[in-house]
Amino acid sequence: TGSLTVGELAGKLHKEPSEIIKKLFMLGVMATINQDLDKDSIELIAGEYGVEVEEVIVFDVTEFEGYATEDQEDQLQIRPPVVTIMGHVDHGKTTLLDSIRNTKVTAGEAGGITQHIGAYQVVVNNKKITFLDTPGHAAFTTMRARGAQVTDITILVVAADDGVMPQTVEAISHAKAAEVPIIVAVNKMDKESANPDRVMQELTEYGLVSEAWGGDTIFVPLSALSGDGIEELLEMILLVSEVEEWKANPNRAATGTVIEAQLDKGRGSVATLLVQNGTLRVGDSIVVGNTFGRVRAMVNDLGRRVKEVGPSTPVEITGLSDVPQAGDQFMVFTDEKKARQVGEARASKQLDEQRKEGAKLSLDDLFEQI
Ligand code: GDP
Ligand code: MG
Questions:
Q1: Ligand 1 pocket residue status of 161, Cβ below 6 Å
Q2: Which one of the ligands is nearest to 91 CA?
Q3: Which string of b and e fits 316-352 if b means at least 16 CB within 10 Å?
Q4: Rounded distance from Cα 133 to ligand 2 centre (Å)
Q5: What keywords tag this UniProt record (predicted)?
Q6: Is 0.95 exceeded by the ipTM?
Q7: Which atom of ligand 1 is nearest to the CA of 91?
Q8: Which of 147, 159, 73, 129 minimizes the C-alpha distance to 314?
Q9: Contact at 8 Å (CB) between 368 and 167?
């Protein structure tokens, strides 16, 4: 259930906080502007102004029983890292994503129809790496603004012929705020005007000092266009993963985040989910953001139908009653009735309104699309 501070309530009633504080005082409540008010006080004050309070229940899957169930250490298994690519416009993010995907995905997967689902996995030295290829900055900031953290590693692409630019700096601050390790990809090394030393020099100002210069940031010179250096980049991702040892428990009901979603004419609501913990199966009852359903079918990044997927795997699902939003979190319920109840409550009108308010706060418009 939602709560409000004195200041927030004043805002909603279009009154001065001091006036609210005075009213509270008359009611025997000593309050400051940042104080959380209980339901009764909110109703009392609102009542004084003839305003009726409708209780809006804000669901957050992370608050559900079972979501945060601590996994025992012995239940945890190493999971693939989830990587996001960020950097200034035209520095080569899309080219790099395509290039990694083309060299790695199609090779061993003859017959697989690669399709765009907003994320893909590659296999390097028998180990998987998951790449999110949704709009980098937007995905990152929207998701973080909505409380979801999906990225384990950020690849910061900096064009060697252009150096550090405004969105490079932005990307660094996002990654730092999220405490996500950064690997610097010094791109466009094939160009005659490439000056990797300058990139290294400029990045020292932001605390990214290369190992060659005594720091601990990994720099990989490469050309997204020719493919030179991409293998090294992938190996460095695996190296960081080995150190970090990201783990999950495949033997529990799945939880994770929506990467993207849309309405498809034939298939209805189609959502790409990133499973972050547990295993997601066809037939599972699932609550996703403010919608719910049963997983009717799952398709992986190669366009293949799959029956179950484990941690760090992106998968496209159908079967939801409505279209969720990027950054929405999901949770599988072992009890279908509960999923339905929760789902229906969440889908209620009040929530939609709540959500419109939330949408205004999202930061995705601030950044360019990849
Ligand atoms: P984004 O805006 O960061 O996604 O950048 P793009 O991937 O769209 O690349 C911008 C431009 O730079 C395109 O014309 C690419 O072909 C070019 N480009 C990307 N990587 C390289 C590279 O390694 N070498 C050269 N010479 N050009 C590149
Ligand atoms: Mg792009």
A1: no
A2: 1
A3: bbbbbbbbbbbbbbbbbbeeeeebbebbeebbeeebe
A4: 10
A5: Initiation factor, Protein biosynthesis
A6: yes
A7: 3
A8: 129
A9: yes
156 lines ligand 1 (CB under 6 A): no
Q: Which of 95, 134, 223 to mutate to test the pocket of ligand 1 (most atoms within 8 A of CB)?
A: 95
Mean pLDDT, the chain, whole residue set: 84
The predicted pLDDT at position 155 comes to: 96
Angle at 309 between CA 304 and CA 314, to 5 degrees: 70
Token pair listed for 271? 């959502």
CB of 190 closer than 6 A to ligand 1?
Answer: yes
Would you state the pLDDT for residue 57? 43
**Strands (E) located in 66-215:** 77-78, 82-87, 119-124, 127-132, 153-159, 182-187
Cβ of 224 closer than 6 Å to ligand 1, yes or no, is yes
| CB of residue 165 inside a 6 A radius of ligand 1 | no
CA 203 to chain CA centroid, Å, is: 26
pLDDT at 263: 94
Residues of the chain below pLDDT 50: 1, 56-59, 106-108, 110-113, 349-350, 358-370
Locate the ligand 1 atom nearest the alpha carbon of residue 222 and give its number. Answer: 23
Give the SS3 label for residue 368.
coil
pTM above 0.80, yes or no: no
